[in-house]
Design goal:
- It comes from Corynebacterium hadale.
- There is one protein chain.
- With 309 residues, the chain is α/β, with parallel strands linked by helices.
- It has 2 domains: 2-82 and 275-295, Rossmann fold (3-Layer(aba) Sandwich); 88-267, Rossmann fold, CATH 3.40.50.720.
- The protein contains 10 helices and 12 strands.
- Strands 8-7-6-9-10-11-12 form a 7-stranded parallel beta sheet, sandwiched between helices. The chain has a 5-stranded parallel beta sheet with strand order 2-1-3-4-5.
- It is elongated.
- The protein starts with a strand and ends in a 15-residue tail after the last helix.
Length: 309
């Protein structure tokens, strides 16, 4: 198989494919597979007819969807795969770190040694916390595994409502009555859902008003899962206790945004996963997906262009 790598190759990924007997070529040399790791402006205006599969180097594809790129090429039979699942461990660890940083009030530490303040404000997962994971796919399942030693009561939320191992209960996202309970009873809410028209501003002023005033929310999915203005207001008013954000809307968050100044908000610059780990893992995923495609099967991380993920 011949493959191209745009806008520029990750050496480790390309080396893995070469070691498996595949050949890296320019896009003009009629590759069967394109590995793509850029944004909408980096995607070629036209693909050679030889390209049958595009392997995307990351999990979220909403920018390519919104630009019409996936639909345009899918119309002529190109199939797309994302990198869902291969970063479960890195993202789950980063999610847990954000959650603990918010609960432990790390950003509130001052050089004046405000020990007495933090004695009263620090929270622990071990203290019978209820954790809701919204979008409990591969990352969510890994987070459940990581959180298990803390003894938390976990509610998993997914599209289907099918049981997620390790969770005390699983709720379908479309079950309005059950979701009312999730929002109102959880101490910690983690957002890991993909961004679709249905999940945009999933957490808005209405949802935030239902949450406990000691609740914290962590977003490691997509920034627009949360209405940023509503979140800012809820934090300013003390309607919820804190937030951990690896993704924001807009991203990056403007330097003068009030969320930066809040000592109960921990923000990381979309680093729950980093290129070093992407480069190590995408080559093997691309090779496996090509084998499945060549065998006439669905790829392991095939994107449903109509569904949006």
């Amino acid at each position: 198989m011949k493959f191209a790598f745009l806008p520029s190759p990750w050496k480790e990924s390309a080396d893995h494919l070469r070691a498996a007997g595949h050949e890296m070529v320019d896009l003009s040399e009629n590759p069967e597979l394109l590995i793509f790791r850029g944004g909408p402006s980096d995607f070629p205006a036209e693909l050679p007819d030889s390209v049958k599969v595009v392997q995307i180097g990351y999990a979220g594809v909403e920018q390519l969807l919104e630009a019409g790129i996936l639909a345009r090429h899918a119309e002529r039979g190109v199939r797309f795969a994302n990198a869902a699942g291969i970063y479960d461990d890195t993202v789950a660890e980063a999610t847990l770190a954000l959650l603990l940083a918010v609960l432990h009030r790390h950003k509130a530490v001052s050089r004046e040694w405000n020990q007495e303040q933090l004695f009263g404000e620090t929270e622990y997962l071990f203290d019978a916390k209820k954790l809701a994971i919204i979008g409990a796919g591969g990352i969510g399942k890994k987070l459940i595994e990581f959180a298990a030693p803390f003894g938390v009561e976990i509610t998993a939320v997914n599209r289907s409502g099918r049981h997620v191992s390790g969770a005390e209960r699983t709720v379908a996202m479309g079950d309005v009555e059950a979701m009312e309970v999730v929002w109102s009873e959880s101490d910690c809410v983690v957002l890991l859902a993909p961004l679709t028209p249905e999940t945009r501003h999933l957490v808005d002023a209405t949802v935030l008003a239902k949450m406990r005033n000691n609740a914290v929310i962590v977003n490691v999915g997509r920034g627009a899962l949360i209405d940023t203005k509503a979140l800012t207001t809820a934090l300013q008013d003390g309607a919820i206790a804190g937030a951990g954000l690896d993704v924001t809307d807009p991203e990056p968050l403007p330097a003068d945004h009030p969320l930066w100044e809040m000592d109960n908000v921990v923000i990381t610059p979309h680093t729950a996963n980093i290129p070093r780990f992407m480069a190590r893992r995408v080559g093997a995923l691309a090779a496996r997906n090509w084998e499945l495609f060549a065998a006439g099967e669905s790829m392991s991380t095939e994107v449903d262009v109509e569904a949006g993920y």
